[in-house]
Amino acid sequence: MEELIKLLNDGKSRTIEMLAIELNTSTDKVKRDIEFLERTGVVKRIVFSGTHTSGTSCNGCTGCGTGGKTCAGCMPEGGFQNMGVMWEVVK
Known about the structure:
By secondary structure, this protein is an alpha+beta fold. The protein has one domain. 32% of the residues lie in helices and 9% in strands. It has helices at residues 2-9, 16-23, 27-39, and strands at residues 43-46, 86-89. It has a two-stranded antiparallel sheet with strand order 1-2. Helix 2 (16-23) packs across helix 3. The chain is globular. The two termini are 16 Å apart.
């Protein structure tokens, strides 16, 4: 599981399938491990939705940095289309 945490923490985006290949394991095992890491608070799921809960810009917004919905100021042009689920390691 340490290797999975290292991969999730390196800043690159990967699908579950890519993680499984890099870890030489099954996608089911990667999913179980990530679910465990989420439940224990080691990682958190990132939501890319294009709206922001507070309606403000990123100067002091609360959604982007806390796993909430991403505000328009943080969205790339055209939004995050076809993005898979992403996680970040909680520090």
